[in-house]
Write a structure and sequence with these properties.
heterodimer, A: mainly alpha, Four Helix Bundle (Hemerythrin (Met), subunit A), globular, B: 3 helices
């Protein structure tokens, strides 16, 4: 279903917050167009910049869903750090930044077929399962609740993630350093 | 808002990311497509968290962001290593293990 269709469905069903639905539709449209441009554009730097729009749109969706902390983290970590990392990667491998012209048409066709089939299957499943389910956001999730959960219930996962980040740091240095 | 609008958006983004992973030959572009996929998963997690009024969705979205950062670091290091050894990041040429 297109974002416009989702928007129309939302507006038609009465007591929904119209402004939120309008914002959702606009942001969703921007995200989908940017994502498509990101995976189809020839220029790798342009792809990274389109990716920024997708990530910023996701942050806006998190705010719409009432979880500012995830939105702020998304902006800091993704747009602040990961995109810069990508741009450095592009810079360091600049010699190979040619056109992707040589991609076989068959490969692109098969990939498009897989993506469309997957979209159809997931769309049918979602429409079938959650067609009338509402999200009611009374108040934003408080930071305190999130941090309480991280440092009590999910403390083991948190420690595992910190060890994982350390391992990734050391691993990246070991893999990428010059002999 | 209905829950489905977020889930359908995430599904569409996921499929676009899958297309990117399958169709692109540039190693960095494949990593970017993986980022799109991980973001769609995050939208799902936060949407279900808001739906169930449970912080678990947000907590695990944060974990996914952290793991994605680690993944990009390692992935770019590997792409850099491929580039240094073969002067190309075309993934169709990286077939040393193909036999």
């Amino acid at each position: 279903m297109t974002p416009a269709g989702v928007l129309a469905a939302g507006a038609a069903s009465g007591d929904l917050f119209v402004a939120q639905n309008v914002f959702f539709g606009v942001i969703a449209l921007v995200m989908i167009v940017s994502a498509i441009r990101c995976v189809t554009t020839r220029n790798v730097v342009h792809a990274a910049l389109w990716l920024v729009l997708v990530l910023a749109g996701a942050a806006a969706q998190f705010i719409l869903l009432g979880s500012e902390f995830v939105a702020v983290t998304q902006v800091l970590v993704y747009i602040g750090a990961i995109i810069v990392l990508f741009l450095f990667g592009i810079m360091l491998t600049k010699a190979s930044m040619g056109d992707d012209d040589s991609v076989a048409g068959e490969k692109r066709l098969m990939a498009g077929l897989v993506a469309v089939l997957l979209a159809v299957v997931m769309g049918i499943a979602l429409v079938d399962s959650y067609s009338d389910t509402r999200v009611v956001i009374d108040e934003p999730q408080r930071f305190a609740a999130v941090s309480d959960a991280i440092f009590s219930q999910y403390i083991v996962a948190f420690e595992a993630v910190s060890v994982l980040l350390l391992a990734a740091l050391i691993g990246a240095i070991v893999v990428a350093r010059k002999e | 808002m209905i829950l489905n609008q977020f889930l359908l958006l995430a599904a569409v983004l996921f499929c676009i990311g899958v297309y990117g992973v399958l169709a692109r030959r540039n190693g960095i572009m494949v990593l970017m497509s993986v980022e799109i996929i991980l973001n769609s998963v995050n939208i799902n997690l936060v949407a279900f968290g808001a739906f169930r009024d449970d912080v678990a969705g947000e907590v695990f979205a944060l974990f996914v962001i952290a793991v994605a950062a680690a993944e990009v670091g390692i992935g770019l290091a590997i792409v850099l290593l491929i580039y240094r050894n073969r002067r190309s990041i075309d993934l169709t040429e990286a077939d040393l293990l193909k036999g």
